[in-house]
Specification:
By secondary structure, the protein is of the alpha/beta class. It has helices at about 20-35, 40-45, 50-60, 70-85, 95-100, 115-125, 150-155, 170-180, 195-200, 210-215; strands spanning about 1-5, 5-10, 15-20, 90, 105-110, 135, 165-170, 185, 205, 215-220.
């Protein structure tokens, strides 16, 4: 068990929410607008967790890379339109967030989405009040796998790295957590398999977010 934890940091997609279909459709609608070929759904799902700019660099020919800033803005606008009807909480998420909130643990988001988009989704899903901080790719200079977003979270919430745990569904995110020196828990509810997640050497691997209750020990001062 992880002892004396004061802060749980969650990735968003694949950890708290199921947004795969919304991401695929939004991604390809932007390509439609540019007159580019649609990208295969499974290939898009494999990239979830990477910065959006990197995803479009893969999907577009180099001759269209100058349009990527436009892609980013259009993606955000279209996603806001689609998300309310197609994004849902993963099983056990509200229960788990409520459980740790009742124990007075700090809880936050560290995502490769823009923080305003992430906050909008969390409000629509009625769980924003259970979180203390939402940070996104726009809040840091270097996205995951850089540890910067985790380090910024620790600074903002004034929690030492040994008292924090990062919950992730991708190897990229787990690398960021390890780089920041926090505990890491991989969850298999995203697009990466258990075997792939194990390659990133997380402290624990769980198949359901509710499994956190059995492995996170609360710091005495939070009880």
């Amino acid at each position: 068990m992880l002892r004396d934890i004061r802060l749980i940091i969650y990735d968003l997609d694949g950890v708290l929410i199921d947004s795969r279909e919304a991401i695929v459709e939004t991604f390809n609608r932007v390509l439609d607008e540019l007159g580019a070929d649609r990208y295969p759904a499974e290939a898009i799902k494999e990239m979830i967790g990477e910065p959006l700019i990197d995803m479009y660099m893969r999907a577009l020919p180099q001759s269209m890379h100058h349009l990527i800033p436009h892609c980013y803005e259009r993606y955000v606008a279209i996603y806001r339109e689609l998300a309310p009807g197609s994004v849902s909480l993963l099983p056990g998420v509200e229960e788990t967030l409520t459980h740790f909130r009742a124990l007075s643990l700090r809880q936050s988001i560290a995502t490769t989405k823009r923080s305003d988009v992430a906050a909008y989704i969390l409000r629509r899903l009625d769980v924003a009040h259970l979180l203390d901080l939402v940070l996104g790719v726009n809040d840091v200079e270097s996205p995951k796998p850089s540890p910067e977003i985790i380090e910024l979270t620790l600074q903002r919430l004034m929690v030492e790295r040994g008292a924090a745990v990062f919950i992730e569904d991708t190897t990229i995110g787990l690398e960021a957590g390890r780089g920041a020196g926090v505990h890491t828990v991989a969850v298999t509810t995203g697009t990466h398999s258990r075997e792939r997640l194990l390659s990133a050497s997380p402290d624990y691997v769980i198949d359901d977010i509710r499994g956190l209750k059995a492995i996170i020990g609360v710091a005495e001062e939070t009880q």
